[in-house]
Known about the structure:
The complex is a heterodimer of chains A (237) and B (461).
Chain A: E1 3-4, E2 8-12, H1 18-31, E3 35-39, E4 56-60, E5 72-78, E6 92-97, E7 113-116, E8 129-135, E9 149-154, E10 170-173, E11 184-188, H2 191-201, E12 214-218, H3 230-236
Parallel strand pairs in A: 2-3, 3-4, 4-5, 5-6, 6-7, 7-8, 8-9, 9-10
Antiparallel strand pairs in A: 1-2, 10-12, 11-12
Chain B: H1 26-38, E1 43-46, E2 58-60, E3 81-83, E4 92-94, E5 98-100, H2 110-123, E6 126-128, H3 136-141, E7 144-149, H4 158-163, E8 166-170, E9 182-183, H5 190-196, E10 204-205, H6 216-229, E11 236-241, H7 245-255, E12 259-263, E13 269-273, H8 274-279, H9 284-297, E14 305-309, H10 315-324, E15 328-331, H11 333-339, H12 347-352, H13 377-380, H14 385-409, E16 423-425, H15 428-434, H16 447-458
Helix pairs in contact in B: 2-14, 6-7, 7-9, 10-14, 11-14
Amino acid sequence: MAEVGISTPVVDCADLPTREVNRALRRYAAEGAPRVLVENPGARHALAVALEGTLTIRFAGSVGWYAAGMNQGPHVVVDGNCGWGLGECMTAGRVEVRGHAGSGTAASIRGGQVFVRGDAGARAGIAMKGGTLIIGGDAGYMSGFMMQRGTLIICGDAADGLGDSLYEGVIYVAGRVASLGADAEEHEVTEDDGVLLRRSLEPYGIDAGSLAFRRVESGRRLWNFSSHEPELWRSAL
Amino acid sequence: MIHGTSNGGGPQMPPAPARRSSIWSPEVIQDIHLKAHLGRYRMQGFSTQRRVPSFDDLTFVPCGLSRMPLEGYRERCETRTLLGTRVASRPVELSVPITIAGMSYGALSKTAKVALGTAASRLGISTTTGDGGMLVEERRASRLLVYQVLPSRYGFDPAHLKAADAIEVVIGQGAKPGTGGLLLESKVSAVIAEQRALPEGVDQRSPARHPDFIGPDDLQIKIEELREATDWEKPIYVKIGASRVADDVKLAVKAGADVIVLDGLEGATGASPEVLLDHTGIPTMSGLCEAVRALEEVRALGEVQLVVSGGIRNGVDAAKALALGADAVSIGTAALLAMGCNSPRYVDDYHRLNVEPGHCFHMHTGRCPVGITTQDPELEARLVPDEAQNGVFNFVQSMVMELQMMARACGKSEVHGLEPEDMRALTLEASMITGIPLAGTDFVLTPDAIAQRVVALLAGR
């Protein structure tokens, strides 16, 4: 592990197995280091997972599946693309991906914020229980599936089944929606929505005012069974 | 007015006795009437009520002149069990090969969850969280706690993952393989709703698939992530519902599981459509035999431990499971019954559910008369913690004694020494499933054995 300047340690994945990379990151987090640079991540899986503290970790390249999964505070920046399950089950902290993300981005997160500059694959924001997922580009099919709480912002298009069976939480989408999922309803945005969108997107240099967002939320007809809507329940189950 | 003329005016005949249709039985008629009213499938808690091939179809053949038994009440018979020796740096050590199965806080009351943990700690065995996460009180009560990672991730907390002694990735359950959990409106109280991040009072239908992986190759990467998150210390269990057992077991081994938990058709649940309980999955004994063969085929028997659950009722069931190749058994329903489930107290409340004590299956309604499967504070208060945990402790102790009794009678100084040769099958189907000779014969009625016998006969041997 080399040192860059005075205060930025470097972890070089080329020299270490993943286990040692994560151990080094845990050590820096425990010591209260402000930031660390990870070189040659080589799209490896399970990097920077289940970390605590306020460490900022920058990956100089693409990462594999489950990057920053289960984190509880750190700020992770990926100068590249990432695989499935980015930031899954995170409870706090931030993740920024400069490229694209695979499927299941921010799956079941309970807090914190995940930002993907490019596109995200299928089931982005699936089962979110809180927090915010922002996708600068397009989102794959079944995004927001069974979302429970939190905010999903899609600046581009959304593929089929957006917001299928969501319980609560809000989805904002600016582009074309191929189709809404079961019990998802589209509404006009309010002034409050506009304020939230501006504040959320500004840090990433995205002008919310230039995009035509709509709001998607639960129709709440799948919350409890009703024999009066057989078509809805046949498609939902 | 015509009286008694069905005989065409001849001598008056007594009324014909009611005939019971085997197609349109009273139960089928009632089922159709109910569905005509509900507009959906029927729901219930508990397990299937069907008769399926089971451990009852096997019997032990203890020692006589050909083998020497151990003294039944005196000689040592080891029960210690290690789970998770394949990869994890800290395997789970159980005093006996019995664990408490995953049952959620939500399906069960908090008092029941804590009582299970307390009893398990006294026994030196593990208990397991469920769909809804870990209770602080449960962790405190349980010396060995297995943390489930379920498709819903309800209540999932990385801090709890790290605080666990083992991790169980749940792919399915025996009561309803291929489907997700259910927690109906009456049990989604304000507290449960907040823990699961759901609106209060919804019918909670858990997803069938995990949010961040789908197939076996994905599972391999997921397991790697869980190991990285816990510094490769904790054993990773993979729980599967007994369905396509051979394939699932081999894939779980390939994905890197330390332990496979196989839950058979007889497994119970807090709530399920009846049709899933009765018509999906395969029995525990069948699944176990298939799993052992699969582990042998990929040369992982012994390296990857096998825990079986689903209808384990006593120490003899446990002994037979071990003899067939399991490393441990897991109990759920039996532990609840030991706490007082279905006991004849508060009988009026059973009657309000239209059932008698001993026949109650109302885990799904939240109206448990004895405070075990409820979120109603008044009902929960009926469960006396010390009585509940003592009941589980005593029951598991009796299981251990029965298990050791079988082992000693078969001449085994450790329960893990039990083997198929210690048993005979009582039915043809049990013989075919287990590969154990039918009692009174030396026939092994598996297809391979039958083929070998035919070849031998043709060769005049």
